[in-house]
Protein: ATP-binding cassette domain-containing protein
Organism: Anaerocolumna sedimenticola
Amino acid sequence: MEKPVVEVKHVSMRFNLSSQKVDNLKEYFIKLVRKELKYNEFWALKNVNLKVNKGDRLGILGLNGAGKSTLLKIIAGVLKPTEGSVTVKGKIAPLLELGAGFEPEYTGAENIYLYGAVLGYPREFIAEKYNEIIEFSELGKFIDVPLKNYSSGMKSRLGFAIATVVEPDVLILDEVLAVGDAKFKKKCEAKIQSMFDKGVTVLFVSHSLPQVQKICNKAILLEHGKIIANGGIEEVSAIYEEKTK
Ligand SMILES: Nc1ncnc2c1ncn2[C@@H]1O[C@H](COP(=O)(O)OP(=O)(O)OP(=O)(O)O)[C@@H](O)[C@H]1O
């Protein structure tokens, strides 16, 4: 039997939602110290089990708030699940919120090392790939400018360049990904396509069913934090379409 590249076992994720109105920070800390803050527990994911085999391209479908991004963040290691475990074999390129690990006071060059470390790349590896990252980002002399002076497109370009410098075994794509202007977008799409051509395993979140159908061979459908369908793309798309009628 085929060994899964990604395995999600009994994963649940609880968030604490504040149920009270707190007017300012001072009041918040007073309530915190007096243990007067009340939370409502909210389970964004509930006992999710999933296996993704090598070379599969899995679409993650579901309505707003179903838990799609939370699941991707847990698989990428950005969030730790409240319960359960995730194993991923090989290198991951998580194209989620690009540049979330950036430090605004540091230059682009310094952030390459910082963000690289956030993604778990060894320092020597970053040093080796440093020029390639700068070249792909097309930031030129701006690489020595603090990140706080970058436009949002420039930050995304640097984030994309760092996250894709590895040859990943697993590519995590969230459609919220914003990657600069039309020209740079094309370049990113070409890079993603080249990863597809090499047979990378893909996890893809999108609200666009045609886009998911174009890219993916399999899909899951999440509803209120639970997987309610898991199978071939056509079968799961049909269930999703029925739900969104
Ligand atoms: N940090 C957080 N704190 C509290 N609640 C959160 C947090 N992150 C997510 N949630 C809640 O978890 C639920 C699932 O969110 P998630 O972003 O995973 O949904 P989604 O399926 O990706 O939705 P969308 O299609 O709108 O992007 C939502 O109800 C959201 O409010």
In short: The chain has eight helices and nine strands. The domain at 1-32+42-91+168-245 is CATH 3.40.50.300 (Rossmann fold). The chain has a mean pLDDT of 88. The beta strands are 4-18, 39-53, 57-62, 83-88, 92-95, 170-174, 201-205, 218-223, 226-232.
